[in-house]
Specification:
The complex is a heterodimer of chains A (179) and B (216). Chain A has 179 residues and is mainly α. Helices cover 71% and strands 0% of the residues of chain A. Chain A has 9 helices and no strands. By secondary structure, chain B is mostly helical. Chain B is rod-shaped. The chains are: A mainly alpha (179), B mainly alpha (216). Chains A and B meet through helix 2, helix 3, helix 5, helix 6 and helix 7 of A and helix 1 and helix 2 of B.
């Protein structure tokens, strides 16, 4: 069902509490998914989500309808998650590629068979820096240049982190299949 | 790299929405932090005018109250205080208490007018008396300058004629008797109750015309 965000936002700006709650419910699953991918557990994700929603509601008057509303809220959620990680010093861009250096290839069917929780579990097993880059590039769709600016790293570092993240995931999936 | 592409697709598809949603407590926390936005709807002209009128004077407050109480549709350009003041004026016209006050004030002003006109009439009477007795009675001083000059001229004209001592005596006796007679007439003509303006005017006119034109 398509949500009429324009109408909901208009009502929210008129301090209509029902519309504010409707907006929260419409975005909750999507933004929780964003926050959950960047954080280690559900509690941290909820902390990020709370900050993200507060930022969304307080910034509603500044929203310009020149782009999709959902993408705008998603960017806020990503930024709040990164802010959370910076605050708690959970970024880690150390080159730990040796650990998974000889990761065997695996069947494409293996990963396609995995459900949401299993994929999330795999993602959470990645080192924080690689997880963040993987999230930003693969799921959010940012370019390496944008990721470099966001994380204050070089574009090449972003590329290298992504490559390592994929290798690690392949290794983990293979390991699961072997078990 | 076919495997990696598959990873991206799967992750993107499956992790787009989180299934295990937070509890209701999270919404309670967020709802408390949502600011109250200023009302984007512009203030109506009526509200603006009403607030302007009420912020100025107590009269403005009263006027705007009356305007709003009367259920007027206030449009831009017409102030609430204006309409209120018009209504107050209109109500004062129909108010019996105000009418009584106005009537009493009108009567008062009429009385003042009568008194002033009586004074003028008195002056006129004296002047006409003087005209009649200008030669023999120069000691009666008229109140207006005009009559004074007229009297003086007449006196000057008469002075050109030769006047004997006998004439003077005759005139003075005549003036005294006539003046006494006129005083008597005026006193008897006065009614017991106070005259109205018109009654007095008519009486004085009769007196003056008689004194001028009627033979003695």
């Amino acid at each position: 069902m398509k949500i009429d965000y324009e109408q909901i936002v208009k009502k929210c700006l008129e301090n209509d509490q029902a519309s504010q709650r409707a907006l929260y419910k419409a975005l909750l699953g999507k933004l929780m998914g964003v926050c959950r991918r960047y954080t280690r557990n559900k509690q941290e994700a909820e902390d990020c989500l709370q900050e993200a929603f507060i930022k969304i509601f307080t910034s509603l008057p500044n929203f310009k309808a020149d782009g999709p509303f959902e993408a705008w809220t998603r960017r806020i959620a990503v930024n709040e998650s990164l802010q959370f990680l910076r605050k708690n010093k959970k970024f880690d861009f150390m080159d730990d590629v040796e650990i998974y250096h000889n990761v065997p290839d695996f069947s494409s069917n293996a990963i396609s068979m995995m459900n949401h929780d299993e994929l999330l579990m795999l993602l959470n097993d990645l080192p924080q820096g690689k997880k963040v880059v993987f999230n930003l590039f693969v799921i959010e769709g940012y370019s390496h240049k944008e990721i470099g600016v966001m994380l204050n790293i070089s574009e090449n570092t972003s590329k290298s982190q992504l490559s390592k993240a994929k290798d690690l995931l392949v290794g983990m999936v293979e390991k699961l299949n072997l078990n | 790299m076919g495997t990696n592409k598959n990873i991206e697709e799967v992750f993107n598809k499956n992790l787009s929405e989180y299934e295990e949603l937070p509890s209701e407590d999270l919404w309670q926390k967020i709802a408390l932090a949502i600011p109250v936005f200023p009302n984007p709807v512009s203030i109506s002209g009526a509200d603006q005018l009403s607030s302007t009128a009420s912020s100025t004077t107590s009269f403005g407050k009263l006027a705007s109250f009356i305007a709003s109480a009367k259920g007027f549709l206030i449009v831009g350009g017409i102030s609430a205080s204006f309409i209120g003041s018009y209504l107050m004026y209109q109500s004062s016209i129909n108010n019996p208490i105000n009418n009584e006050i106005e009537q009493s004030e009108q009567l008062k002003s009429e009385e003042e007018l009568i008194i002033n006109q009586e004074q003028i009439s008195d002056n006129e009477v004296i002047t006409k008396d003087n005209d009649q007795n200008s030669v023999a009675q120069p000691q009666i001083i008229p109140k207006t300058n005009k009559t004074q000059s007229v009297v003086n001229n007449e006196v000057e004209e008469d002075n050109n004629l030769p006047i004997t001592e006998k004439d003077l005596q005759k005139n003075s006796v005549q003036i005294i008797t006539e003046t006494a007679k006129q005083d008597e007439e005026i006193e008897t003509a006065k009614p017991s109750k106070p005259e109205s303006f018109y009654e007095k005017k008519v009486r004085l006119m009769k007196d003056s015309t008689r004194s001028v034109f009627e033979p003695e």
